[in-house]
Amino acid sequence: MFQQLTPVIKNLLIVNIVFFLGSQFVPIAYNYLPVFYPDSPYFKIWQVITHMFMHADLGHIFFNMFSLVIFGPMIEQVLGSKRFLNFYLISGIGAWLLQMGVQGVEIFNATGSFFPLHQSLDMSTLNTANPGLVQEVYTSRMLGASGAVYGVLLAFAYLFPNIPLQFLFIPVPVKAKYMIGGFILIEIYMSLSRPGDSVAHLAHVGGALFGYLLLKLWRVRKGIY
Q1: Cα separation values, 100 from 16, 128, 137, 169, 203, Å
Q2: Is there a domain that residue 34 lies in?
Q3: Which residue segment(s) compose the domain that 8 sits in?
């Protein structure tokens, strides 16, 4: 299977594994490479990219890389390696943008500002309206390739909608457009029903959304494969 990997998929797989193994030996990497809310004192600009290559545990990286290996090569063959890399990274950044946008609204509702720390507002006073919210947002970190991977999944359903997919827990084949569409709907539902969940469900939705917008912007024909 690995001999059939396309160039970008192979390199993404290697980079993600290197980051994961490195972070296990140097745990302090989890303080600097995941991405934080832009107004957080822990935020660094490089985190917008590096968070896509960090993973919390073995199960996290396995499912992301498994999905990338299964669905990514066909997308790279259609888009070409350079455009596919751009697609992957922009989908990941889009996932971050949507997640941060929602957190920004939460911060604004609690403080009256999207960037209260940078405006030198009194955080202790602002926190009384919603105890713990600002601290939670400012100290929570987002990491993982899931947003970018959801962009790849969306692209697969967009380009190959009628290819039957079969997963371990689903006994019958289901067309890609229904299977992947169902995954995205589940993420939307989870983001609404479990807002305090440690999983960034809206980031997954953001990755799919930005992936779709890119395919439209690039005028990639839908469902021709």
Answers
A1: 23, 22, 9, 33, 9
A2: yes
A3: 2-217
224 occurs within a structural domain: no
State the 10-residue block means of pLDDT for the chain, 225 residues long: 82 98 96 96 96 96 96 96 98 96 90 80 54 83 96 97 84 91 92 70 94 96 74
Give CA separation, 153 vs 73, 103, 104, 114, 205, in Å. Answer: 11, 25, 27, 32, 11
DSSP 137-169: HHH--B--SHHHHHHHHHHHHHHSTT-EE--TT
The DSSP 8-state label assigned to residue 94 in this structure reads H
Q: DSSP strand E in the chain: where? A: 164-165, 174-175
Q: What are the tokens at 21?
A: 């193994």
In this predicted structure, what is the pLDDT of residue 5? Answer: 92
Instruction: Return the CATH number at 178.
Output: 1.20.1540.10
Residue 180 lies in a domain: yes
pTM for the full predicted model: 0.91
